[in-house]
Amino acid sequence: MLLSEANPAAGLFVLVPWIVFAPVIGLLINAFAGKRLGERGVGWVASLASGAAFLVSALQFYALTLHPEGAQVKIAEWIRIGQLSLDWTFRVDSLSVTMMLVVSGVGTLIHIYAIGYMHEDVRFKHDPARFPRFFVFLNLFIAAMMILVSADNYLMLFVGWEGVGLCSFLLIGFWYDLDTLGRSSWANSNAAKKAFITNRVGDFGFLIAGFLIFWYMGSFAFSEVFAAAPEVAKTHPWVITAITVFMLVGVAGKSAQIPLYVWLPDAMAGPTPVSALIHAATMVTAGVYLVTRSFPLFGLTHDGQYIVATVGAVTALFAATIAVGQYDIKKVLAYSTISQLGFMVAAVGMGAYVAGMFHLVTHAFFKALLFLSAGSVILGLERGHHHGHHAPSSPVLPPQGAGNSLSHGEIDRVKEEVFDPGDIRNMGGLRARMPVTFWVYLIGALALAGIFPLAGFWSKDEILLDAFLHYPHVYWLLTLAAFLTAFYMGRQVWMVFFGKARHEAAEHAQESPSVITIPLIILAALSAFGGFINLPFKGFHQFGYWLEHTLGAIEFPPFNFMVAGVSTVLALGAIALSWFLYQRKPLEHGQTDPLAKPLGLVFVGMEQKWFIDEAYQFLFVQPYRALASWLAQKVDWDFWHEWFHDSVLVKGFVTLARLLADPVDLGFIDRVSYWLSDAIRASAETLRKLQNGFVRSYALSVVLGVAAILGYLLLK
Amino acid sequence: MVPVSYYLVLSAILFSLGALGVLIRRNSLVIFMSIELMLNAANLAFVAFTRVHETFSGQIFVFFVMAVAAAEVAVGLALIVAIYRSRQSVDIDQLSSLKG
């Protein structure tokens, strides 16, 4: 470690492993003592662990302002095989610290929010014993994500990458025995498996990229790989392109890009804090981080950059069109997340790393805000629903120690009518009943729509500006996506908070407690003012200057009023259009979407997600299942069991045994032993006559024997 | 002085008489006595050689032989008495129950 003893600030770098240790300690406490701590204790332990990680990250930030060159903190040797030498090293530089701050900062707010959210969620789902498990998983996620962002080599990054994938799986399937409506089903469990398996496809690409990197550059460590890259680019230009394209496969899996985005909408089966933290703010941005971290590789291949930028832009537009046709409040946000991730991937693909990371940070704020507010809305509707069914108030506590079957029976009794608290067609008019949630949601929605001067405006505009200058086709795709973004957010806000209640649950909706609203207010403030860290005016690119320490010199294009003006006008126009469609004449209960008629089949496509799931089902899942059952029936059963085992093995063994039994055993071994025994018996028959019982004849033979021996000795 | 060969010849004659007695006679007491005769023929040869070589080892050997013969007589006569008690006979040819 290179630390100047003179400056105490540099000594702060050695604290960096605690960004992982703190959440690990938290999760161990909750895993082993969670039952005894009670809900409040579990929630605070987990939040403090995450908060400690945030504090350490903030200290790293402070140390980095004094020592912009950063540090590599090695805590253990990891792999020593031949030429390969890998350490467990934490990398502190402006890029990793940015990610640390976002992950632990947003993560801590979501932990606090989750104390309130899960308190009610476990009761609505009649299994309060599951409360500590949620926080164990959440802390595990923070630890894995911290490993991912602070890794100093691709393999350690991959450990974190798989770790967050595991946490994603565990948390999507948190209510593994229910579906999203709380009925007994394997739907959530299937959603978790879908996410995990889709990510395996992406991880396969990442692994191939890793193998190529190691094969051609001889190392996994970032600094060595990047140092060797220009040489490889000269000798094997295609290698760099191949690495970036395979890396893109990994990015498409983790960051939900075409063609692997399909898992993210289903991932909304997880509790809402999970959707906010993992499937909107942090984990899904890992792909963007990976591309930014590998910027020296992407900088060497124009083809790779072009592919990445195009994939991102197409994803941004494609997902935005689907978001327009969704009715589930979280599904809209999920497709919005895919779309916004498309913006980020397009940005980093174009080489606009600062814009991409900037959008990553602001998106983490406002999308976490939107998801958490959506969670608050859902809880509000759940409360309203239970209010309608149970006279007194709020959540029903099942009897202590109620068995599983009992609580399921209770669900059946309580939910005579299946009520979906996430369906925006059941909402309406919530502005009056949930004012805090309304205001923070509005701020988040406007930030996402890119309305001046909220955070989303600045970051999205920077991406559009870069696209406008370098990649015109990306610019047009993204501008169209931005228009749709503003439209679907407008649609959602009108349908959820304005008009009148379309369901009795919405009529009786109740505002959430302050443990939920306070994190929302903090996130709303960040969403409103987060854009000011990187204003596009000369001398104000604070975030850009900050990342320059890691990314090298960056050119900052001047603010372009045309680009900003076009996107603002489009956003305002989209909001106006959504007002025209959804608020001029508010929707009635049971009315179809006003867009359905004018758009016709296009709207059906949007509503049905362009039948991508069905297409994948048809193209991959069914052939795979058919192949699997064919292999099981033909190869495993018919070939191995029926033919190979029964015919080849058993019959072969029987034949061999018969062969051995008749000629070898009976013919040879038996005959030899019988001949031996016969011979011995025959000789014994002869010899027994010698023993005639007369002592004197024995004596005579002794005498004769002695005489013979003596005679032989004498006459020799 | 009588040459040693005389003694040896006498010893050989005595030994042969003993051996013949063992082979020919059927009364076990007589066979016993014939065995004693062979032992004493050997003793005679020992003593004769002691004289020739002027050492005492032959005579010492004779003492051992006499001790062994005495022990043998004790055991053998006891056996013969036991056999006689069970069979009322000491005829060696009637003791053939170990015939193969």
Question: Could you explain the architecture of this structure?
Answer:
With 716 residues, chain A is an all-alpha fold. Among the domains of chain A are: 229 residues, no CATH class; 91 residues. Chain A is built from 28 helices and two strands. The longest helix of chain A has 76 residues. Chain A is elongated, with a radius of gyration of 36 Å. The N and C termini of chain A lie far apart (98 Å). The N terminus of chain A is likely disordered. The model of chain B has no long low-confidence stretch (mean pLDDT 90). With 100 residues, chain B is mainly α. Chain B is elongated and about 50 Å long. Chain B starts with a helix and ends in a 13-residue tail after the last helix. Chains A and B meet through helix 28 of A and helix 1 of B.
Secondary-structure topology with pairs:
The complex is a heterodimer of chains A (716) and B (100).
Chain A: H1 8-11, H2 18-66, E1 71-81, E2 84-92, H3 94-124, H4 131-150, H5 154-172, H6 187-217, H7 222-235, H8 237-254, H9 263-266, H10 272-281, H11 286-293, H12 295-298, H13 302-324, H14 329-349, H15 353-389, H16 404-414, H17 430-433, H18 435-449, H19 455-470, H20 472-497, H21 504-507, H22 514-529, H23 542-551, H24 561-582, H25 596-599, H26 601-607, H27 612-687, H28 695-715
Antiparallel strand pairs in A: 1-2
Chain B: H1 4-24, H2 28-53, H3 57-87
Helix pairs in contact in B: 1-2, 2-3
